[in-house]
Please model this.
Amino acid sequence: MSSTSETVLAFLDPGHFHAALTLKFDNPRVARDVYAYASPGPDLDAFVALIDAFNSRAEAPTRWRLHVHTSAEPEAALIADAKRAAKSESAPWAVVLAGRNNVKLARIDALHQAGIPVLADKPWLTDPNTLHHLASAMSGPPLARDIMTSRYDPIARLRLAIAVRTDLFGTFAATRDGTGLPAIEIGSRHHLLKLVNGEPLARPPWYFDVGIQGTGLVDIQSHMTDQAGWLAAAVGAVTEPCDFARDVQRMQVERWTTPVPLELFTACTGLDTFPGSLAPHVEDGTLALQCNSVIRYEIGGISVQQRAEWGQREPAGSGDVMSCVLRGTRCEVVLEHGAHTDWEMQLHVRPVGGVSLESPLAAAVADWQTDWPGLEAVPAGEGFRLDIPAALQSGHEQHFAMVLDQFLKDLGSARHDVVEASRIQMRYTLLAHAERLAGEIQ
Model:
């Protein structure tokens, strides 16, 4: 029997490896017995295999007891069991969703209506016509949150801390200052064939179907939209609760494809042919995967550009490649990441227009020692590199456990956060609008 301080986690159709990553590390807030409700098939098998790998690894193995319930209607079975548990006053349940994106928002709404808290991976929608479920799901308790791992990255947090210091950063550069450059510029390059938990990632065939997975306008872009909104709110450009109609203007979008030859598709999925559902997008043995995009807009008067790209194969020794530039009136904050940094992320602060950064940066670093003990500003090029001690660093896969822990803390407070709900609503409303714009262009 689990103690009442623990939450029982149930996973509904865990079709994406992000579901398992929430359980990569033990968490005292989570009951040892976890449940998976799913239709039988390779998606479920992959989830079970990852949980088994976490439990059996040599270093710091987890101790999850996984109970698998297979049926043709896993959502109904999960809801019924969660309601029975609530009536018996056993440990509270929460659901983790990470899988097919085309059904995600409707499922979040259904679980919300059933009184079950939900932590759901991004993106929540692929089709803007499902947006009506969003307002319902965010209308009040129980808690519904998305897995925004980027907020837990130490560099992202430090970037935010710089942006709010007017003595160091100034304010965001004017939207139309003659340079043609956005004040917030975020980019990323991911790869279809990559390593996760040290092994080549096996992607389900439906991952390559944009009708299920979504296009490049809604996937990685959800993280970037969250980062831009987070920054805009922190500097007071957006008054929270957020409102898309009030806060977002001048949106433009672009969308394009990455070619996926059959041999790459086979390496990712294990299938030796393209499924019939992908036939409309296959020509001469190559799938045109519409996974890349640019979104430009203004939020609270701050200009933003978000670029998400997908390559075919991850270069040896590398990983996902991130970029970010914040352009202030006193300095630029630049994320350096790539082969030239040995694939380590570096955060640089560079003066603008002859501004001297030494004094305000020294004061800021001294103030930040509470949150980042050992943080140093090292002269580099025209400015400074901010070195975060290795002990404070955390990798992308660790962030899923952090997101889960914060979700469970919020769940324990029994409080509906109107501000956070408004952020989620604005984020997915923006992405839905981007999809509509792309449809009009085509």
Summary: Residues 195 and 290 are 22 Å apart (CA to CA).
